[in-house]
Design goal:
Order of helices and strands of chain A: HHEEEEEEHEEHHHHHH
Distance between the termini of chain A: 27 Å
Number of strands of chain A: 8
Largest sheet of chain A: 4 strands, antiparallel
Largest interface: A-B, 30 and 30 residues
Strand order of the largest sheet of chain A: 1-8-3-6
Oligomer: homodimer
Number of helices of chain A: 9
Shape of chain A: globular
Strand content of chain A: 15-25%
CATH architecture of one domain in chain A: Sandwich
CATH class of one domain in chain A: Mainly Beta
Structural class of chain A: alpha+beta
Chain lengths: 188, 188
DNA sequence: TTTGGCATTTGACTTAAGTCAAATAATTAG
DNA sequence: CTAATTATTTGACTTAAGTCAAATGCCAAA
């Protein structure tokens, strides 16, 4: 997966000037305060958000409880994928958990400029592939690791998460209760 | 997601003759007996399998237990996605659970013919998007539904699964023990 | 520096689902 | 058709993680 990320970065760095400009022409910088929403549940996701600064999360409500599906940092792309692709209302919220600056890329405009910029078609496919592999990995981990192991793996692979994100969100990302997370942390 | 499947079918039905021929030129029909493997864990997945007839499953081993990740029927595409995309050894087996006929599409050849057949680029993206949405849905269901609810949903959405697939595989697809599945079934 | 509001931890108890073992039922091969 | 396998069910017990409630710690604003 690291290899795949490198491919994506290489592609972006080698963008033609016109591709770069086209992309800028459909992006606009937006800022959100901590706690504000980039996308609400029920809304159709009509743009993707390239994080320039800060942290966001995707989550949905189950009963009264939140499940955090993704935590996104600088240079990650925040999208409610299924909603974006299928034009259906999103099950997920996208929320700023710190003050955030994003490049907001309009979906339809992006589709249009892809026509004349094959590198963007490439980018689209590579990013979708990356997200898909990440989903496969996440699903795999839920089915092979228990609470302690999932937390340990997170510590190992995403040490910045624990440094910058409140435990409530960490717990809901690992899909364990806050109390269990607290107990897990004493056992590491 | 149904809408997306229709898009895929529409695209395939409207393939240019040359695209159709190019695709055939990189495909070859293969047959597998019940129980045989289309792909072994540890192998790199270098082709995708379009199911023409029969049923296959993808699964991996966890401790001594199998987790079935996908059940594939006629006109589904069987691929070990992460392995296929990243050229890494597959964690998953792909196995025929009935006698099976597939169109085996060589990955590198497919990549090559995409160059001259934009419809195949389209197809590639659409199918990846579909699989990604399916993964999101599956992950969502594991985190919001308990064993009974997951089984009921399967009955509703995939009644053919229960008709054609041994309960061992159904259980391992729902990621519950065979005993729990048996108990769930008395409670429907 | 105090207070009110979060964030985190700890304790006691519950529960969904797993495990292990044994009993039936259903297929398949001879 | 009958034996032998294989698939499914049932029972008794265990366990990981959840729930609810209370205690403690930690800031941040007045």
């Amino acid at each position: 997966m690291k290899r795949h990320l490198k491919k994506i970065n290489a592609l972006i760095e080698n963008f033609d000037v016109e591709t770069e400009l086209a992309l800028q022409s459909v992006s606009k910088t937006k800022k959100y305060k901590k706690g504000e929403f980039l996308l609400y549940q029920g809304e159709i996701c009509k743009s993707s958000f390239w994080i320039e600064e800060g942290i966001t999360r995707k989550y949905y409500m189950n009963d009264k409880k939140e499940v955090t599906t993704e935590l996104l940092f600088k240079h990650d792309l925040a999208v409610a994928f299924s909603s974006y692709v299928s034009n259906q209302p999103s099950l997920e919220f996208i929320q700023a958990i710190t003050d955030v600056t994003v490049s907001c890329i309009d979906k339809n405009s992006f589709r249009d400029i892809k026509e004349n910029h094959p590198q963007l078609i490439q980018l689209d496919l590579l990013m979708t592939e990356y997200y898909t592999m990440w989903l496969e990995k996440r699903l795999f981990e839920f089915h092979t690791l228990n609470a302690i192991e999932r937390y340990k793996l997170l510590l190992l692979e995403q040490p910045d998460f624990i440094r910058h994100i409140p435990l409530t969100y960490i717990a809901s990302y690992l899909v364990i209760s806050l109390e269990t997370l607290s107990r897990v942390r004493t056992k590491i």
